[in-house]
Amino acid sequence: ITIEQLVYHTSGIRDYLTLAFLAGKGSDADYYTDQWVIDALARQQETNFPAGTQFLYSNSGYLLLAHLVKRVTGQTLREYSAEHIFAPLGMKQSHFHDDNTEVVPLRATGYAPADEGFHISMTTLDMVGDGGVFTSIDELLAWDQNYYHNRLGKADPELITLLTTPATLKDGTAITYAFGLDVDQYRGQRKIAHGGAFVGYRTAIVRFPEQQFSVAVLCNRADANPETLAMNVSDLLLTEVLEPNVDSAALPDFAMRAADLQKFTGDFWEADEAIAAETQIIDGQLWAIHSPTRKNVLRPIAGHRFQMMGVPAKVFVEFDFEGDKVKTMRRIINGKPRGVFNPFTRLQLRADQLAEYVGAYYSPELQTQYGLTVNDEKLWFSLDDEDPQELTAMFGETFENPDYGAFKFTKNSAGQVEGFKLQSGRVRNLAFTRIEP
Question: Is 49's pLDDT higher than 80?
Answer without folding.
Answer: yes
